[in-house]
Amino acid sequence: MNDAISQYYRLPDDYLSFAVRPEAAGREGFFRYKGITCYGGVGTAEVSPGFQNAPDVSGREIKANGSLQLPFNPDDVIRNLRHERYINNDLAQEKDSITRNAYYILRRLLPVAVRKHLQRYRLRDWIDIRYPAWPVDASVDDLCGQILKGSLEASAITRLPFIWFWPDGQSGCIMMTHDVESPKGRDFCEAMREIDLSFGFKSSFELIPEKKYEIPDQLLQDIRSSGFEICLHGLCHDGHLFREKEEFLRRAELINQYARAWGAVGFRSPVMYRNPDWLSALEIDYDMSWPTVGHLDPQRGGCCTVMPYFIGDIVELPLTMTQDYSLFHILRRHDIELWRDQIEQVRSRNGLISCIVHPDYVTGSRELSVYRDLLTLLREIREEARLWTALPGEIARWWRNRQAMRLVQRGTEWRVEGPGSERARVAWASFDGDRLHYSLE
């Protein structure tokens, strides 16, 4: 109990003062707490099958005896949001779709000019989706903050210590990734590395090992020797990886073989198809297949957080920025204003600014100019806001180390102990009026 909040903040042992009331169970559905849309059970209270009519249960909480008593279990709610339990995400609605199967059979023969029209038609209802919130949904992060604030108020404690989210006191994190989907994209990888380096960034390249294109050993060597990272991008990018569990497990064995051969420890699913219950079959340290908001993806939903988290033993690094393909070809925009808005929302929560820019789709002068504008913006805010720029593997290692760290009191001082603790910082959570405030020691 209380694990999700404690793990989110890495609080001292037994330091969080809230409890779940015994009746916090029952049928799961949507409800609201402090203006945050949640999904779970609230005892005998009515919940809604849709978020539009979700009842507000804030008035059912009790602050007594120095403790915040909640009418729901936040561990369940946070897991439901992160794992997208609020929707049917097993792709059953598309599994037998003749249209979908035909599309993936013909996809490799269709130029982008044709594919974008088909995809725009398929996703035409995205603007009508109201949950998760567009363009950034941070329900998990906001819920954790509200419960911590309520715990402080109930216990009359002015502030709580926790282990800061990022190393060396950085206020947030930037991660750049490049999914490579065609021979054209593969051949542009060297140019992408040079562009990234010119702005002071290093990134990861997600490569497809079978069918789409040949991967010369020299390409792998060049990526590694330049300090960039190699990740697996599915097996063959045919849209079928998560359709059937038996087929997924067969492909997972092959993906694991390629991961060992390439020395890769990260994965991103093609088309962002995903299933948290199957992910453990992959021998990886981290995954990057969950969008914060999935309105513009064939598999809708979203994990509703801008922070890394764990799916079993795997670190999940969520995508918090709209993909370049979606920006250019679904939204038909060639500016960075949407990205700027998303960056500000993620920054305000000290989160992970994670980007996908495909080498395949920025070879044109117009698109490449937009990408350079994005790098210029990221470089500026990195210096202004002290953001950590890191490879996915570095972020996953930090998050795994942070999970193993402990905050202990030595006399009147708090110290962080554990692997990598020399880069950790003690932070304090307090509240000023209705706002939770963080400060670094």
- What is the oligomer described by this structure? single chain
Counting DSSP H or I runs of 4 or more residues, the number of helices is: 14
Mean pLDDT comes to: 90
Global morphology: globular
Task: List low-pLDDT spans.
Answer: 89-96
Share of β-strand residues: 15-25%
What is the distance, rounded to the nearest whole angstrom, between the alpha carbons of the first and last residues?
28 Å
Q: Kindly name the structural category.
A: alpha/beta
Q: Radius of gyration in whole Å, from Cα?
A: 22 Å
Q: Main sheet, how many strands, which sense, barrel?
A: 5 strands, parallel
According to DSSP, the number of beta strands is 19
Helix coverage percent:
25-40%
Descriptive overview:
By secondary structure, the chain is of the alpha/beta class. It has 14 helices and 19 strands. It has helices spanning about 5-10, 75-80, 90-95, 100-105, 110-120, 140-155, 185, 190-200, 215-225, 245-260, 325-330, 335-345, 365-385, 390-405; strands at about 20, 30-35, 35-40, 60-65, 65-70, 160-165, 170-180, 205, 230, 265, 285, 310, 315, 350-355, 385-390, 405-410, 415, 425-430, 435-440. Strands 7, 8, 9, 14 and 15 form a 5-stranded parallel β-sheet that branches. A 4-stranded mixed β-sheet has the order 10-11-13-12, covered by helices on one side. A 3-stranded mixed β-sheet has the order 1-5-4. α2 (about 75-80) packs antiparallel against α6 (about 140-155). The longest helix has 21 residues, at about 365-385. Residues about 90-95 have low confidence and may be disordered.
